[in-house]
Design a protein that fits this description.
11-stranded mixed β-sheet, alpha+beta, Structural Genomics Hypothetical 15.5 Kd Protein In mrcA-pckA Intergenic Region, Chain A, Pseudouridine synthase, 4-stranded antiparallel β-sheet
Length: about 290
């Protein structure tokens, strides 16, 4: 099929117009999956300007192309960003060969494949390897920079299953965090030039015998902050034997980043994303658990 225009127009609008499509989603799929050439050169960019005299050929797939399921749940997505659910036991981002096996490496490869190399994703923030939960990724560097510049406007909530009940049902934990130069373990200490102020808000949600479920809200985002602070008040997170939990059995760390709310960096619209707490989170196995 050959398409032409008498005035400059985007490839997307040309397809909408010439094929008499009443649905933008249909036009998007055609532009994405059809074999399209502009002046004998492959081009599936919906924003590509087609000028008078350009020769556009379009060959639609005989059968509708199937979108491959993402490797991890994507709870929100638009043209600028996405929010995905990271499992426990996976690095958010790695270096070199390690990055291919990280969360962003695997998810980024998926988007690169389904978009035929036209889409990339960019890290905005991180979760510890052992922690599961929601992560925001940008689809361009300008959006990544806007999200990072306005990070204080992002509300983040976590669930933590702890071994002991806090003395008060809710409260604020504040300390100066240091990182050990050799073990890289984080600990609370005195204020110093290299220390970072950390503030954590907690609230007791319910007892899940023999454990206790807390809701956590951060005022700061320091490395291992929640894990250190809950250990400081005598409530280590179940499975987090690095920070004081029982090590009789090796359990996955019960810390889950379940809620994000933030203004969209392009539109200002408030985006709210919430993940369902897995049932297994509240009932750690008696046997050793392996990260999946």
């Amino acid at each position: 099929m050959k398409l032409s225009t008498e005035a400059p127009i985007t490839l997307f609008d040309l397809v909408m117009q010439k094929l008499n499509l009443g649905s933008k989603s249909k036009a998007k799929k055609i532009v994405e999956y059809a074999t399209i050439h502009i002046n004998d050169k492959p081009n599936n960019n919906p924003r590509q300007i087609v000028n008078p005299g350009d020769i556009v050929t379009l060959e639609r797939e005989k059968q509708p192309a199937m979108r491959v399921a993402p490797p991890y749940p994507i709870l929100y997505e638009d043209n600028d960003l996405l929010v995905a659910l990271k499992p426990a036991g996976l690095l958010t981002h790695g270096v070199g060969e390690e990055n291919r096996k990280s969360f962003v490496g695997i998810l980024g490869n998926y988007f690169n494949t389904i978009s035929k190399g036209r889409e990339r994703i960019y890290v905005v923030h991180r979760l510890d390897r052992e922690v599961a939960g929601l992560l925001i990724f940008a689809k361009s560097i300008p959006i990544q920079e806007k999200l990072k510049d306005n990070w204080k406007s992002v509300d983040k909530l976590y669930y933590a299953l702890v071994e002991s009940s806090p003395k008060a049902s809710e409260g604020v934990i504040e300390s100066w965090l240091h990182e050990h130069p050799k073990s890289l373990k984080v600990y609370s200490g005195r204020k110093s030039p290299e220390a970072k102020l950390a503030i954590t808000n907690y609230k007791l949600v319910k007892e899940v015998a023999p454990y206790y479920l807390l809701q956590i809200k951060l005022d700061t985002g320091r490395k291992n902050q929640i894990r250190v602070h809950l250990s400081d008040i005598g409530c280590p997170i179940v499975g987090d034997y690095r920070y004081g939990a029982s090590s009789k059995t090796k359990r996955q760390i019960r810390l889950f980043a379940y809620f994000l709310q933030f203004p969209h960096p392009a539109t200002g619209k408030i985006i709210k994303v919430e993940a369902v707490l897995p049932k297994s989170f509240l009932h750690p196995e008696e046997k050793d658990e392996n990260y999946k």
